[in-house]
Specification:
It catalyses: L-glutamate 5-semialdehyde + NAD(+) + H2O = L-glutamate + NADH + 2 H(+). By secondary structure, the chain is an alpha/beta fold. The protein has 15 helices and 25 strands. It starts with 5 loop residues before the first strand and ends in a 13-residue tail after the last strand. Bound molecules: nicotinamide-adenine-dinucleotide and 5-oxo-L-norvaline (A1AUG). 5-oxo-L-norvaline binds next to loops.
Length: 593
């Protein structure tokens, strides 16, 4: 009976396409009670088809910027020039309203050239944050009721805009504001950002299609994927424009509205991203942009009854402190719901290179894993365990190559391999660790060790060897271009596996390099919980949306896997609906004869 067409007539109710059911809906007629803001929907929302995500969703291509890509280099140079000659005034954006005066401002700094100001950005006051929450709640009234196809179309349109019209501008903003080279920019603010937007549409579409497998005769069971009640708070890191897009975009796609506190060190690209989303049709108030003092902004948000979820990426320390504030507030009955907490945090990611490894492959992957992105990837390789049998050859490639790398301003020396670290605090942390090497008898500097912040926050890629497998350098995240190596005796491999697993509290990424299948099997088993992303004969970095869902457990976060179907489920609250077409004629059951 359920294969028959169904005609629904619902007067006075909102029709919300939060879930597509597998039964063809011939007609849905309804009126709605939306207020002024929702006037576009006052004639009701018909569901006249079962819309699937476009079939062609696949990874965005990467422009390689080879020396033959003359036109792309030209366009990029123009955009870099535009930003450097036209300092930006980045406002707060609350309910679609631009607030760019009467607020304290801060400078947007180019980490490769700290005397160059790229503009200023406004700092939200507590009142602004309250207004952002109110706007989110107001916008939710239309956004949550907007059909999935329309919400999706906005993110697909934004993807297209980033891929074409804004590609070079987005690259320039990310390179200047976050110290990246063009290739790092392509992977981040173009490829991964677009992939998050497009693949989330596919994942959401698949989720909505997921309906109860059974309905008893005369009954229709349905599953509705409701947005969370209240608003979502997105706190985003500096190091990936894509991550900011994912943290804001995933909850919004699922019908939630968002208060977004961007990182102070990614303002240029993050504001451009918001502008692109608006151009793509994002209604006012769906995302409210409130840069500001993180503690003050969070204090207002986390004490609001309507706070429904945290979507965070950043350091373990900050995440832990926010978690404990939320837990405390749950205890005090501050919230309507138990807030969802989704957070991806730090890593201390390993490479294991065994005696059977292809040494050249292992060494070059280690260099890329440790020093691309200036080591400022949560997945960056920062500890390596290398067999004594292959160490001489491995060390030669590693040190000779690393010696040849000089970090540079990649917005001027456009072909540069490495840029600066992000800010003075990061520079001081990493350079402080490097300074300590000379006084530590358990450490030996093999390469690099130089740093200079007179022009930009430049740190030479640095390799240090330790004799202590549990040295703090094998344990703590520095989030910079610093790799520590421990050389092990082949007979010691079981102990090495044990130490890889237990030395640090993190569990984000790791890689093993071996050509021996039995050994690979053993590593995979023994290191099951040491990494949420485990690589075999590949570097510990570079997960691709739709290919390797990303995230780790232990101190590395909630492992909800950005870039996967699992993530979107965290921003919905499922409602089960049972409709009975039968009618009772009495209260007795057959056994009551
Ligand atoms: N696991 C992942 O997927 C992933 C990805 C990228 C970065 N990271 C991690 O992020 C860190 C680097 O990024 P970062 O320097 O931007 O991290 P961070 O923790 O310093 O800052 C992250 C965000 O939190 C905000 N913040 C800082 N203190 C706060 C507080 N007390 N309350 C509320 N918000 C606060 C910041 O302003 C920023 O927006 C590294 O630890 C890295 O491993 C993890
Ligand atoms: N997803 C990226 C990490 C981004 C975090 O900083 C990778 O796998 O390298």
């Amino acid at each position: 009976m359920l294969s028959r067409s169904v005609r629904t007539l619902r007067t006075g109710s909102k029709f919300v396409s939060k879930a597509s059911v597998s039964i063809p809906v011939v007609a849905s007629i309804q009126s709605s009670r939306f207020g002024v803001q929702t006037s576009i929907l006052t004639r009701g929302v018909a569901q006249l088809g079962h819309f699937e995500a476009p079939r062609h969703i696949t990874n965005e291509y990467t422009k390689l910027f080879t020396k033959d890509d003359v036109k792309d280099w030209e366009l990029l140079k123009q955009e870099l020039e535009n930003f450097t000659t036209n300092p930006q005034t980045v406002p707060l954006v609350i309910g679609g309203k631009i607030i760019d005066s009467g607020r304290e401002t801060k400078q947007i700094v180019n980490p490769a050239n700290i005397k160059q100001s790229l503009g200023t950005y406004a700092q939200a006051t507590k009142e602004d944050v309250k207004a952002a929450i109110e706007s989110s709640l107001e916008a939710k009234k239309i956004w949550a009721d907007m059909p999935f196809a329309d919400r999706s179309a906005i993110f697909l349109k934004a993807s297209e805009l980033i891929s074409t019209k804004y590609r070079h501008k987005m690259l320039a903003a990310t390179m200047l504001g976050q110290g990246k080279n063009v290739f790092q920019g392509e992977i981040d603010c173009i490829g991964e950002l677009i992939d998050f937007f497009r693949f989330n549409v596919k994942y959401a579409s698949d989720l909505y299609r997921s309906q109860p497998p059974e309905s008893a005769t005369g009954v229709w069971n349905r599953t509705e994927y409701r947005p969370l009640e209240g608003f979502v708070y997105a706190i985003t890191p500096f190091n990936f424009t894509a991550i900011a897009g994912g943290l804001v975009g995933a909850p919004a796609l699922m019908g939630n509205t968002v208060v977004w506190k961007p990182s102070d060190s990614a303002i240029l690209s993050n504001y451009l991203l918001l502008q692109i989303l608006e151009e793509a049709g994002l209604p006012k108030g769906v995302v409210n942009f409130v840069p500001g003092n993180p503690v003050e902004v969070s204090d207002v948000v986390l004490n609001d009854r309507n706070f429904a979820a945290l979507h965070f990426t950043g350091s373990t320390k900050v995440f832990s402190s926010i978690w404990s504030t939320i837990a405390n507030n749950v205890g005090k009955g501050v919230y309507r719901d138990f807030p969802r907490i989704v957070g991806e945090t730090g890593g201390k990611n390993f490479h294991l290179v065994d005696k059977s490894a292809n040494v050249e492959n292992a060494a070059y992957n280690t260099i890329r894993g440790a020093f691309e992105y200036q080591g400022q990837k949560c997945s960056a390789t920062s500890r390596a365990y290398v067999s004594e049998s292959v160490w001489p050859e491995f060390k030669k490639i590693l040190t000779q190559t690393v010696d040849s790398i000089t970090p540079t301003n990649c917005t001027q020396e456009l072909q540069g391999f490495m840029g600066p670290v992000i800010h003075e605090a990061s520079f001081d942390k990493v350079s402080g660790a490097i300074k300590s090497i000379a006084e530590d008898p358990e450490l030996e500097l093999l390469s690099g060790g130089k740093f200079d912040k007179s022009v930009g926050y430049f740190i030479k890629p640095t390799v240090v060897q330790t004799k202590n497998i549990e040295h703090p350098f094998m344990k703590n995240e520095f989030f910079g271009p610093l790799l520590t190596v421990y050389v092990y005796k082949d007979a010691e491999i079981d102990n090495v596996l044990e130490k890889i697993d237990t030395t640090t509290g993190y569990g984000l990424t790791g890689a093993v390099f071996s050509t021996d299948r039995l050994s690979i099997r053993k590593y995979e088993e023994r290191l099951r919980y040491a990494a949420g992303n485990f690589y075999i004969n590949d570097k510990s970095t570079g997960a691709v949306v739709g290919q390797q869902a990303f995230g780790g457990s232990r101190l590395s976060g909630t492992n909800d896997k950005a870039g996967s179907a699992a993530l979107v489920t965290r921003f919905v609250s499922v409602r089960s609906i049972k409709e009975n077409f039968g009618e009772l004629k009495g209260h007795l059951n057959p056994s009551n004869f």
